[in-house]
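Thread title: Can someone regenerate the structure for this chain?

I was given the following input by a collaborator and told the matching structure tokens would be attached. They weren't. Posting the sequence so someone can regenerate them.
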Amino acid sequence: MATTNTPMPSDFPENGPDDRGAYRRSRHPESWIDELEATLSDSSTDLEALKARLSDQLQATRRSLRDASDNAHDLMRETLDCTEEYIHARPWQAIGLAAGAAFLLGVIVGRQ
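Best answer:
Regenerated them for you:
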């Protein structure tokens, strides 16, 4: 029996791309807004202290958004790499999947 270089289904991640960027995930954006609102509603501080706190919170928010963007980019790149690897390993299955998706889209659009 001839051996092939075609990867087996077990060679592909079953749960999507690996989660290397998980350590960079940060808080939910609503918590940033809540923090900023709490700082603005605090009337016990003077103007300079308030400006300093808001500046620190905005820097932290900017940093968190940048990290979230980097994480999303990493996940997208890993997903594209996995998809490309799958297509190169199984070109006829990829063509069949694309044809099936196009057929279903045509049926859905044709109903309207």
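Residues 14-25 have pLDDT under 50 and may be disordered.
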